[in-house]
Amino acid sequence: MSPLQKMAAIILCVTFVLMVLATILVPAPYDRQFRDVPNAGPSTAHPLGTDGLGRDSLSRLLYGTRVSLLLAPAAALLSTLVAALLGSAAGFLGGWFERVVLAVTDLSLALPWLFLLLTVRAMLPLDVPPMVSVIIAFLMMGLLGWQASVRVICAAARGVKDSDFLLLARSSGCKPARLLLRHVVPNLRPLFYAQFWISIPLFILTEANLSILGLGVMEPMPSWGNLLRGFEDFPAVAANPLRLVPLILLVIVVMCFQLVLPSQEVTQ
Amino acid sequence: MLQEGLGSYYFHYLSALAHGDFGESDSLKRPVRELLRQRLPVTGNSVVRGLGVAWLVAALVASAGLASRGWLYEASNTAFSSLLLSLPSAVVAMLAVHLRIPVFCAISVVVFPRLHRYIRSLLVRSYDQPHVLAARARGLGSGAILRRHVLPVAAPPLLALVGVSFAIAFGAAIPIEALCDSPGLGQLAWQAALSRDLPLIVNVTFVVCLVMLAANSLADLAGRAFTGSTQ
């Protein structure tokens, strides 16, 4: 690990600790309105000031970090699981199954991802409780975000398929299921980790985009995307530059995730 | 229409589509065909111009880095492009609104870092090939090396990247057009998703799919023609 990667890992760890300690650290619940001080600047009671509805910005930032940093890795885990299952089975079994999986992958990769997400979101109800909107965002990203990983995993599984140890296992009478689970999947594990790590920053950005467009996490639940919506009110940002903190935190965390990624040879 | 179930909706949609009927938008109460005809040129225009700028800048910056290869230049380049990569495209759109930057520039800001990273690694890899070293040992100028020894190797993946960059640009067009209030396909898709207008969004997605297919096939054909002509 280079010093830069170590620093990125430390920043990520600190962010995660802050996220876990959110309930102890926050000055107020994220949806409590201090109606006499809307759009306030930083003070001892509200270190980052308050938003247009008088809600404490620091509390919303900490809770929003919690939502975003749980949502993205959870969705990445789900999509990597789907990709691992489909990719290794397709590469290992070959034949028509591989052709079908790769055709579906190519088809959905041909479409910009955001269009796909928007189409699916349009079929689901919009006026849902905030918690349900988080779950919808999680399922959408997790179940629709596996295409790029499937291709990589499928290609690697195809490589493992022709290896000597698999020939040996097959000649000693291993069933296909056991071959897949005991011999193919463990060999692809570094690839699964790599795909998982790559997906996290991607999903953080996607959640931000969806929430800014009003299709992700719903108010009053804070998330990084929701907090960035306050950025649209430019005079308020100019009056209180601390409103940029969510954006800066998001950029730093995404950059750190990109930095601590496993080396390029594994990911390509 | 959804009450009949997704399957039958899809069947009716396909049979109408086969007759050239795109249906009517639920929320805007206008024929989808008319909406698409109005909106597609707007997005097409900003996507093509945005891609043009992004490709030009990315190619220039990537090749300039190859010529000098100073660590400061490289580090600042990497830092800048990963900063741009870490910005959600919706934030780029908001910045574009405040700074009064045209839509196509915002699109090129989103596309540029992705292109730059790929083009750079591609060029670095092609320059490290032994035949380039041999050409340099024979005393060829850097222009001749680039034209005759690097570009022929790097061209097919670069042409494939043209197809991919269209997908990136169209994806970026959704938040950018929505927030910059540019009446294009991206904004239409966003409005359709917000008002849950299924006939509209399905058709918009269909048209975008066709555009992507055309772009990717053209890039593929160009790549094949290129490898055919050099062999």
Report on this structure:
The complex is a heterodimer of chains A (268) and B (231). Chain A has helices at 3-20, 22-25, 57-93, 95-110, 113-123, 130-144, 147-161, 164-171, 176-212, 224-229, 234-239, 245-259, 264-267. By secondary structure, chain A is an all-alpha fold. Chain A has a single domain, classed as MetI-like (MetI-like fold, Orthogonal Bundle), CATH 1.10.3720. In chain A, helix 1 (3-20) packs across helix 3, helix 3 runs antiparallel to helix 4 and helix 3 packs parallel to helix 7 (147-161). Chain A is elongated and about 75 Å long. The two termini of chain A are 19 Å apart. Chain B is mainly α. Chain B has one domain (25-230): MetI-like fold (Orthogonal Bundle), CATH 1.10.3720.10. Chain B is built from nine helices and no strands. Chain B has helices spanning 6-18, 32-68, 71-85, 89-99, 103-127, 130-137, 142-180, 185-194, 198-230. In chain B, helix 2 packs across helix 5. The radius of gyration of chain B is 22 Å and the shape is elongated. The mean pLDDT of chain B is 86.
Write a concise synopsis of the structure shown:
The complex is a heterodimer of chains A (268) and B (231). Chain A has one domain (3-20, 62-267): MetI-like fold.
Explain the layout of strands and helices:
The complex is a heterodimer of chains A (268) and B (231).
Chain A: H1 3-20, H2 22-25, H3 57-93, H4 95-110, H5 113-123, H6 130-144, H7 147-161, H8 164-171, H9 176-212, H10 224-229, H11 234-239, H12 245-259, H13 264-267
Chain B: H1 6-18, H2 32-68, H3 71-85, H4 89-99, H5 103-127, H6 130-137, H7 142-180, H8 185-194, H9 198-230
